[in-house]
Amino acid sequence: MPRLRVGRVVSLDVDRKTVALADGDELPYDTLVYALGSARDDHGVPGVREHAEEVASRDGALRLRDRLRALAPGGRVVVVGGGLTGIEAATEIAESFPHLDVASAVRGGLGDWLSPAGRRHLRGTFERLGITVHERTAVVSVGATEVRTEAGTDLAADVTVWAGGFAVHPIAAATSLAVTDRGQILVDETMRSVSHPDVYAVGDAALAHGPVGNSLRMSCASGMPMAWQAADSLVARLTGGRLPHTPLGYVHQCISLGRRDGLIQLVTTDDRARSFAPGGRLAARYKELVCAGAAFMVAHPVPYPARRRHVRTGSRVEAAQARA
């Protein structure tokens, strides 16, 4: 019978095929699905953990909201990071707290991966919201009231929001699993570990490849199809069915620019920007629909019709959801 065990994972032994929990128990497995996700990556920059807020967790987002609400008019907010998370955080803060002075520190150019149309709309939105952009600005430290840049200048900050990327949990890297230099588990097209065939990895914790060999980026647009692929592959191998051969590719990047503006950047299957990038209120509503739909599906799983198939090998498979 299936069992659900909720616990905190502290280590993994892929040679003994056990998962160790914080309470001292060990869970044996025949097949393991590793989906521990990611957290913010401070890149070793001094002061980030002590002084910067983050939006990579619910607790972090709520703490940031409270700090922003406590700032007086003219309070200075610096968002570090020019990726999708940094862009969405800066525009959301600027729109929700128009009395604050919001700035964005970007290592490269603002939205430099977007199409020309996408960049124009993005820059227009930043200007409309009054966000100051510091392009080609690398941050080397974060203090209580300032952000120090590689050029030696300080950006005044009453609140610093760190959106400099994501890092995976170190549990996988501490095992004999084949991982990248970032600690992501290397998987094949079925999401199975290239070094340990009894381990599947999905989401940010794994490095999978798209239809032309491109690495899939950390995002829900990658994680959900990876999970589907792993589930179908696992069932196929247990029952003697046909393995899935669906290439994992992209269609668009949906970017929120506050609650009333957005940008839909169409992309190729390997995530390169196409010329078409509609923006505005309709794009914002579309992104809202995508997010609301994903949240509803998590809270209300849809019982899709399925054909019962007998396990071919008779091996035991246990499912457990744990958080690191």
UniProtKB/TrEMBL annotation:
Pfam families for this protein: Pyr_redox_2
- UniProt cofactor(s): FAD
Question: Which residues are listed as membrane-spanning?
Answer: none
| Keyword terms, alphabetized | FAD, Flavoprotein, Oxidoreductase
- The residues covered by the FAD/NAD(P)-binding domain are 8-231
Q: Which domain of life is it from?
A: Bacteria
One GO molecular-function annotation for this sequence? NAD(P)H dehydrogenase (quinone) activity
Gene3D superfamilies per the UniProt record, alphabetical: 3.50.50.100
For the biological process aspect of GO, one term held by this record is: aerobic electron transport chain
Q: Which InterPro entries match?
A: FAD/NAD-bd_sf, FAD/NAD-binding_dom, NADH-Q_oxidoreductase
Q: Does the keyword Coiled coil apply?
A: no
Spell out the PANTHER family in the cross-references: 64 KDA MITOCHONDRIAL NADH DEHYDROGENASE (EUROFUNG), APOPTOSIS-INDUCING FACTOR 1
Q: Which family does it belong to?
A: Belongs to the NADH dehydrogenase family.
Q: Which protein, by its recorded name, is this?
A: Oxidoreductase
What does the record give as the organism's lineage?
Bacteria, Bacillati, Actinomycetota, Actinomycetes, Micrococcales
